[in-house]
Design brief:
Helices cover 30% and strands 16% of the residues. It is built from 16 helices and 22 strands.
Length: 623
Amino acid sequence: MTTASVAEGSAPKRLIVVGSGIAGLYSALLAAEAGAEVVLLTKGALADSNTYYAQGGISAVLDEPAPGDTVAAHIADTLKAGAGHSNEEAVRVLCTEARLDIAELGRFGVQFDLDDDGDPALGLEAAHSAPRILHAGGDATGAGVAAALIRTVLDFQAAGRIRVIGHAQVTSLSLGGPQGGRVVGANFLHDGRHLGVHGDSVLLATGGAGQLFAQTTNPAVATADGLALAWRVGAAVADLEFFQFHPTCMVLPAAAREAEGNNDPLLISEAVRGEGAILVDTTGLRFMPDYHPDAELAPRDVVSRSIALHLAKLGDPNGHVFLDATVIEEQRGQGFLAKRFPTLSKRTRQAGVDWTRQLVPVAPAAHYWMGGVVTDLYGRTSVPGLLAAGEVACTGVQGANRLASNSLLEGLVFGRRAVEGFLGGSSTGPLAPALEPRTGDRLASSAAGSGAHATTALSGPPELPVVDSGRPLSGPPAPLLGSVLEMDPVPGPASWEFESLPGPGALETSFGQAGAFSRGALRRLMTAKAGVLRDGGLLREAGVALAAWAGDVLPLNVPDSLDVREHEDANLLLAAQLLVHAARERRESLGAHYRNDSVREPAAVEDFDKRYTMSRKASLVHD
């Protein structure tokens, strides 16, 4: 790998990795290989992550690509899917370096599927111009990759090279340093106790927030923890209005949909439509050609929105459509679906559907958050000592809408780069270039500042890596070591407040009292008023309801509780407020953010393709 090693003879730096998806596992292994002390915290078991559920695969242009495919084509496809909102340099890094990290996965035991000639089997997915999708175990790519990385992490743990702490809910980040503005550790709940661990840097790899919505492809652990942790220490966040809804999640019975949790969601991958499956409505009409020239192979946001619009046209906005995969079996021969999609074949049968002969009921479901904690090209946030990679981060790669199978790749490429950024204090290599600003002139600078930040390498006490504090850790900062590095600037965030009163204009007739807070009520609210289809009135109603709940839950504060669910609820409510605010400010539709009342009047985002960046300002926090 290209990651620099810890200088010989110097004290090893300690990296605290929060999360055990592809970004967390991969970065932990690379940091440990480079000689760093690594503490890996995961809120459940190591396999509890969005990565484990990923089916579609990993996109990459290999040394021997499919005929006609090039890195330039991958870049063009990613930029097109991102609706002109992606950071071009970040996309170039992602697509150019992809094959390097694919090779690294092989070193850690990941085995990708091969074709009949023994070469990597490359699949085609929606919005890709050529076959470049790698799979492991057919439609169980995420599980295959995660299992291999987990085995290697456990080997490293047995050898004393990584310390893994499972079932650790991180509740807050510790600040220290000369001005108290550097992240120097993490506090977490474990076995009914408040614990803390010091480190030189914390890498957030906590995944997304699908549990914000009633229907999601994400597991129950996806509760916006990393975003909330970063926000509370003043990190800049951006692009939160862009939440991708996967168009084809199998619809569960009504009773199961109303229950709490994710109910073991079944995502029907784009790869199925890539093989030829079509979408039909209850009358049997194939409707996608009426909405987009690429029909079922259009970008995800287009397919999701088309389904929602078509259902609304039919007078059944909360209904579902059908995925017809029988056409694949007819074209490719009996047994093809079972061979190409073994997991989906098994799961659909368990749900009572034989998809070789029957239609599968599907509807859009919350899938992936393009926005997140703003980072540079080496994972560094606006707060010294805090790194982020994977879905929790906003690198600028995904733009307004993620290209299929680019998410696992982003976790790999920028997870590695975050380790390189972490080890930069002992490396002579260049620091990360700043991301291109996507901030309009009206956006004010944040309390965190828009200039360069001094990043000082710190070392926690080696004799006491984990502290039982009985409360959130707030002890003295660890001693200084090493040289001072300059942090690249990030776009200046906007000055703003959460909604607390209804905005101007008549209230919609659907508006009512928020009622008592519950996770189920939050998910229903977000689905109804901030989901696939949005407008100003619905978003205003959502903001008021969320503000009412915030008066009781106090999401800006860390709950004084040993109940993990209370911490998750606070994180979800905070994330919901941030998403709704960003969605209100972007008044024109773009990518995955679609407003029925799309206008071009001035707003916080003056130019439609500009990034809306926010950061917590102490003066605006309500007690």
